[in-house]
Amino acid sequence: MAPPPILSRVAQLFPDALFYAPMQEKVVALTIDDIPTPGDPHDLSTRLILQAISDYNRTAEHPAQATFFVITDHLNAGSSILSEILAEGHEIANHGTSDTTPAMLEPVEFERHFQEAHDLLTDAIQQPIRWYRPGRGLYNRAMVEHVRLTPGYESLVALASMIPFDTMQPLSTPNLNTWYLSRFIFPGAIFVIHGGSLDRCVQTSQALPPLLRSLADQGYQVVTLSQLYDRFIAETALGSPPPHPPRPQGPPSPPLV
């Protein structure tokens, strides 16, 4: 199955963002936004998502791994959730300090929004961070340039292969989310689903198991965003047709709207 034509066109129009990694290998990336849930001192809601993936992995031929995009203002005092995410083989990525639309911020405000989150996360996990995902999927020139100048980050902002549906309350349900995400299964797809509240975490924990089983039944592996990107780079180096360039040159694109 190929990417939807409209998605391919959007990726060409906005080459500073990673919407998918066009490749032959049957691999997809699972990304989870808005982690953790603020005001949940024991992170029980976020652990529902971790447990759902862990339960699936117990019997899976290929364990699923995910990239968790963290909003640092959501972190609860004394929480061990970041280390728990890493211990399960998942990846931590930067979703900023707060649940906002960073493309609407002044450059100096965005730098604070990005850099404070980066500093807190790297200090907490003692590992490099490779990905930044802008809130609402919107970005501008100044944002892309700042991300590119930050050591360790990829030159593309991380977006996804679909517009999230699970934030559209009260329409969102676990079954509907599973069905919706399954419409975008193709090699190199980037799935996005949300935590950040008890309701969303419950829905995500219920939507993931059937989605993961469906992917496995179709021969797909579910990996982190970095694993997907690295496999894409390796596949491209071996001579597969390249998609929109993974490391674009020249000035960034205008905001995605």
Concise structural overview:
The protein has 257 residues and is of the alpha/beta class.
Q: How would you explain this protein's 3D organization?
A:
This protein has 257 residues and is of the alpha/beta class. The protein has one domain (22-237): TIM Barrel (Alpha-Beta Barrel). The protein has eight helices and seven strands, in the order H-E-E-H-E-H-E-H-H-E-H-E-H-E-H. The protein has helices at residues 5-13, 44-57, 81-87, 107-125, 141-149, 174-182, 198-217, 225-237, and strands spanning 17-18, 27-35, 66-70, 91-94, 157-158, 190-194, 221-223. The strands form two sheets. Strands 2, 3, 4, 6 and 7 form a five-stranded parallel β-sheet that branches. Strand 2, helix 2 (44-57) and strand 3 (66-70) form a beta-alpha-beta unit. The model is unreliable at 247-257 (pLDDT under 50).
pLDDT < 50 runs, ≥5 residues: 247-257
- CATH fold descriptor: TIM Barrel
Order of helices and strands: HEEHEHEHHEHEHEH
CATH superfamily: Glycoside hydrolase/deacetylase
Helical proportion, percent range: 25-40%
CATH class, named Alpha Beta
Shape, per Cα inertia axes: globular
What is the average per-residue confidence, as pLDDT, rounded to a whole number? 93
Provide the gyration radius in Å.
17 Å
- In DSSP terms, counting alpha (H) and pi (I) runs of 4 or more, how many helices? 8
Strand elements, count: 7
From the 3D coordinates, which CATH architecture would you assign? Alpha-Beta Barrel
**Termini separation:** 27 Å
Total tally of structural domains: 1
**Strand percent estimate:** 5-15%
Largest sheet: 5 strands, parallel
Given helix and strand content, the structural type is: alpha/beta
